[in-house]
Amino acid sequence: MLLAVPVQSAAQERRDHDRARAALEAGQIRPLSDLLAEVERRFRGRVIEADLERDDTQWLYELKILPPNGRIFVVELDASTGALVRSRGPVQERVPGEAQPRQPLR
Questions:
Q1: What's the confidence (pLDDT) of residue 32?
Q2: Rounded to whole angstroms, how far apart are CA atoms 65 and 43?
Q3: What is the structure's pLDDT at 31?
Q4: d(CA 52, CA 63)
Q5: How far is residue 84's CA from residue 20's CA, in Å, rounded to a whole number?
Q6: What is the largest CA-CA distance in the chain?
Q7: What are the CB-based long-range contacts (under 8 Å, 24+) for 78-85?
Q8: This prediction's pTM
């Protein structure tokens, strides 16, 4: 019985991946990489987790952000437009003209 759980989880992940790819190819969602750049310009902190979910008729990116003060917050974006749908936690938006920290070279 314990062995069935990872198999179901892997199969579900594969279906989710296929659905996300189909939505991207159909133009129903924007690429996550485009939205990540916008989010890190708009909010203080770094995205540490991203999920794509289908909420009835709408695709949503749920992004968990770790700001410098360590108090994690979550933003949910419309995956087709990038518009903020809702947020949870102590959201920290950058003020206009605020410099964005440099990313370390990889």
A1: 92
A2: 8
A3: 93
A4: 9
A5: 19
A6: 56
A7: 79/23, 79/28, 79/29, 79/30, 79/35, 79/52, 80/28, 80/29, 80/30, 81/30, 82/30, 82/34, 82/35, 82/38, 85/58, 85/60
A8: 0.78
